[in-house]
Specification:
The protein is an alpha+beta fold. The protein has one domain: Thiol Ester Dehydrase, Chain A (Roll), CATH 3.10.129.10. About 25% of the residues lie in helices and about 35% in strands. Strands 1-3-4-5-2 form a 5-stranded antiparallel beta sheet. Strand 4 and strand 5 form a beta hairpin. The longest helix has 16 residues. It is globular and about 45 Å long. The mean pLDDT is about 90.
Length: about 150
Amino acid sequence: MISQDEIPAVRHRHMLRVPLFEVDIGQAVYHGNYHHFFELARESFLRDVGYPYRRFMDQQLHLTVVETTCSYRRPLHYDDLIEMHTGVQWLRSRSICLAQLIYREKETGGMELCTRAAFNMVCVRFSGEPAVLPPEFVGLLNAWIEKKTAHP
């Protein structure tokens, strides 16, 4: 579980309304479906960094999730306006950990934290062998973090 101290200060934000097909008979988002939201936010994050996931695939690479933790604090429901935050918790030569948070807009204004997760991912070739993260990706990622730090 990521603690408050481990939440990256620099984060990408992605907004979404919870669609009906993600909700179960209990009228809340099914726990496994939160991973759909996290994936959408990660893809948006990579696009914002300037290195869409397609660029990994074009090099016959992918980021495979090797470990994840998730804490469900408050349930999400159909039509909730949510804001998903993604930030780099750590970066190594072959792997990256992304911290992700889901906030919901409160009726009284402001946002409340509903879910937090961390995804440890390793760069892997389509052949299954671990690979070094592409240097261009690492450069763009570092530039994105510096830009966000300078102009929050």
